[in-house]
Amino acid sequence: MKENKQQLYDINILFILFLFGVLSCLYIYHAQQLPQYETNFAVRQLTFFIIAFLIMLALLHFDFEYYLQMSWMLYGFGLLLLLTLAIAPESIAPPNNGAVRWFKLPVIGSFQPSELMKIFIILLLSSIIYKHNHTFHTRTFATDIRLILKMTAATAPPVLLFVLQPDMGMVMMTAAIFFSLLLVSGISYKIVSVLFGLPLTAFASFLTAFWRFPEIVEQLLFSRLSDYQVRRFYGWLKPLDYLDEGYQTAKSLLLIGSGSLLGSEVKGYLPEAHTDFIFAIIGNTHGFAGASFLISLYFIFLYLIMLIALRCHHSFGTLLCAGVIGMFSFQIFQNIGMTIGLLPVTGFTLPFISYGGSSLFASMAAVGIILSVKYHSRNFMFASKAL
């Protein structure tokens, strides 16, 4: 009955974002002290944070229900950017290490459209689930399969364009968002168990076979792959034995290990130290204490988003929060995992910490949408999430 809006600015989230900004500039400054760098990336990152903060404030003031109405339009805009990237001349979209993932534009600089696309995918999948659940009030096996097919059809076009770039990291990111939203979509947990269990079982089986029965893996899997692909596997699982393919992982492990408890003055060459491997700089500069502090901040940050999801009385807002939590959780886990040799090396940045405008703008845009959910959620006495 009584309606009220939430506090406009979530002080806790804003304070954590401020800490992320300080830590980002600090560790990028430490990274650029390595001999391979001459550019002052820390000052650029500070500029990116200011612009990204303004983007977040702008999105915060839009009622999140507008995103429900605009989800297909934004999704189409994202696909258009990816298609343009695929056919653009090299002067606009130059290849980098055999992949075409960036626009290089005057004044603006480099821009990665896939960073925007992952936000649009969250909006669209949340919209699809929300509308499906309001159409089919009685859940059956047939309606659950229908929802999965709708979500699969929506994610297939961007995934295909990511594969063509190629950008397998974004394919993995899309899968993480897909499964995060599927988990809270209301479908049968029997179906969820199968969809989650099969890939996890296959992954665990591969790792077990690789270490215990290497000759079987060589015969059944590696014999069907190119030599380059096989060496990438070994570079991930045995980085110290395959120093060419596992060079970044090996150097990262050495830097983190030398950081000990409180940090070390020992430095060394590390490719992409200010972007993908910034966590290695954190572990080296302030040791286990610094790395633990950052991970704790991430846990608190994700917990605060989860609280917004639980307190939202509109299921679309809850779905948006779930998708953003899945996106950030996967990206954090993947980035830190690859720096410590737990996961294969991909092109993921560490959210809010790694250098880069595209990633930072997308991350802050996601936070702006989440704060919009918090501010524009209306609380009613006897309210439920059936809206």
Briefly characterize the structure.
With 387 residues, this protein is mainly α. Helix content is 68%, strand content 2%. It is globular and about 60 Å long.
Q: How would you sum up this structure, described in words?
A:
With 387 residues, this protein is an all-alpha fold. It has one domain (11-209, 243-376). The protein contains 13 helices and two strands, in the order αααββαααααααααα. The chain has a two-stranded antiparallel ribbon with strand order 1-2. The longest helix has 34 residues, at 278-311.
Indicate how many domains the architecture comprises: 1
Query: What is the percentage of strand-forming residues?
Result: under 5%
Give the fraction of residues assigned to helices.
Answer: 55-70%
Straight-line distance between termini: 15 Å
Unreliable parts:
380-384
Number of separate helices: 13
Order of helices and strands: HHHEEHHHHHHHHHH
Q: Any idea what the shape is?
A: globular
Total number of β-strand segments? 2
Topology, please?
Elements: H1 11-31, H2 41-60, H3 64-87, E1 103-105, E2 109-111, H4 113-135, H5 141-164, H6 168-183, H7 189-212, H8 214-220, H9 227-237, H10 247-259, H11 278-311, H12 315-339, H13 357-376
Helix pairs in contact: 1-2, 1-11, 2-13, 3-4, 3-5, 4-5, 4-6, 4-12, 4-13, 5-6, 6-12, 7-8, 10-11, 11-12, 11-13, 12-13
